[in-house]
Write a structure and sequence with these properties.
The structure holds two protein chains of two kinds. Chain A is an all-alpha fold. In chain A, about 75% of the residues lie in helices and about 0% in strands. The longest helix of chain A has about 35 residues. In chain B, strands 6-7-8-3-9-10 form a six-stranded mixed beta sheet, with helices on both faces. Classes of the chains: A mainly alpha, B alpha+beta.
Chain lengths: ~300, ~350
Amino acid sequence: MTTRTAKTPRYWADSPRFLAGLFMSPTIIYIVALVGFPFVLAIIYSFTDITTGNPELEFVGLDTFRIVFNDPVFRRSLGNTFWFAVISNLLVVILATGLAELLTKDFRGKWLVRFLVLLPWVAPVSLATVTWLWTLDSVFSPIDWLLRQVGLIEGNMYWLGRPTLAFISVVAVQVWRIAPLAAVIVMAGMMAIPKDVHDAVEVDGAGPWRRLFEINIPLLAPIIAVAVLFGVILTMSDMSVIYVLTRGGPTNRTQVLPTWAFFKGIEGGALGQGAAVALFLFPVLVALTAIVLRLARRREVL
Amino acid sequence: MALLEVRGLRKEFGDVVAVDGVDIKSEEGEFLVLLGPSGCGKTTLLRMIAGLEHPTDGQILLGGEDVTDLPPRARRIAMVFQSYALYPHMTVARNIAFPLKAQGVEPEKRDEKVKWAAELFGIEHLLNRRPRQLSGGERQRVALARAIVREPSVFLLDEPLSNLDAKLRAAARDDLLGFQRQIGITTVYVTHDQVEAMGMGDRIAVMEKGRVRQIGTPEEVYHHPADTFVAQFIGSPPMNLFQTKDHVFGFRPETFLPDGVAEQDDRVPFDFFVNRVEYLGSERYLYGHINGFEDTKVIAMLPATVRVPLEEQKMHKFTVASADLRFFDKETGLKIPPQPITS
């Protein structure tokens, strides 16, 4: 007769509860230390007037928020963030759907195209953005060189030096960077549509436009919503592209909330104000996530 | 004139020959079944008729017109898919209306025809539902209504009953055949289920490895199989076949009866060693072998009305009517006229 059962392991290392905790701990420690702790700290800071010069926690209620919101640069950044996210994600959806269509087709050299499409996503952000910094350089820009050769311009465009052009450039690089992720998400959605449905559309005699607008887009809508959700969050919470390319300039034309929070809080030393700016988008993104996920679930029809 | 005709149809996928020279003619209003094991090319053949695959070689004619190079929408065909392929985001009414909309039929006419098709299949009460709210049988009816609504000249069905559970299937088979008779539309039906094929087909084309082995009425393919493949593929349990040095001969399990049960003059006797008896209620299956062919398993199927006691592990006298014996060439497996039996 054996006395060993599953509930009374012989060694403490055999205990499922102990092992579960052990295996989970790296993730939990990582999240608490690098996400949870700074997040709580940011909330505390935003209710104080803490600066790098005076690191004493003195609670001032909503004063910090009031100061931050009354700053015209903040309002400018808020508008920029909104348009930056909306325009780039609109372009991303169109581009990603096209790319996904291309990636699901069979043709020679498909692997090369797939690799090239995914390249912007796998390249480190800062490295890729530095490449764009040179591509858009005020003097040595190869784009300018090309335009000069074709005879469209004389001199230089100063891509990052003129407010509107700078905004367009920043949007273009952001689109370039996040389109691959969206393309892969949409591609997964396309492959999930049963082949029989495509065949049925063909036998039923629908042309390409009807197929696109009455079948493909409605069926892909939930997955496109998820791609947009990722895109918007990545655009609204990321500062690397703008920080490297324009540092928010010229004249704050490309200033967005993450860069403004960084300049205020870290470079400017007003930690409390930086935290308040950074936190501003948090409820917006949470609400957006909830809405999109709910919509996606309701549209889930298969 | 044949309504649907395929001539020398061939389809290759890379090195694989899926359909290898098929010729079929189907008359107006016929229910033609393509039957074969999976991978025999029956679905590829159906998809070529639909226009979803382009043949490597050969021709497809509809009503005498060559449609080989026409896209599906330009052929007057409708197809029901194995999964039904309903559009999940549309209501039943919009699903049925979709082919009409694609054809540019005006809205009033469209509604009228949707109503007609829905009534035909008894699904008027489901028009505002979405596919996921329907049962398997209801989905199938919607798929049929969507296919029939533009009044195609040929109706193509790809294993439409395989997603239904066994109980529903018999009823669905009867319904489907009823609709087909009522509308009188030429139908090509793909299945791997010989019960469906035998029960529904006016004619059955038995396929294997991309070729049609035999095409004929259910009686013809059952009683006069063109070769040993058809003899063993049709019928459950299959025909018993015996290899002699000159030819192959065989008989159906239900024609193999204990001596004295059948009163017919011209009967051929065999000594049947019964290994095991399986009692199934309506019939008995006897497993064993016959004298002279010890390596070949033989199955006899006796109806419950034959009450002769038959002991296991004993030799019994059995007979087959000589008219029920079938002979095949031992090289090609093709049917040959009756021969004297040698061992």
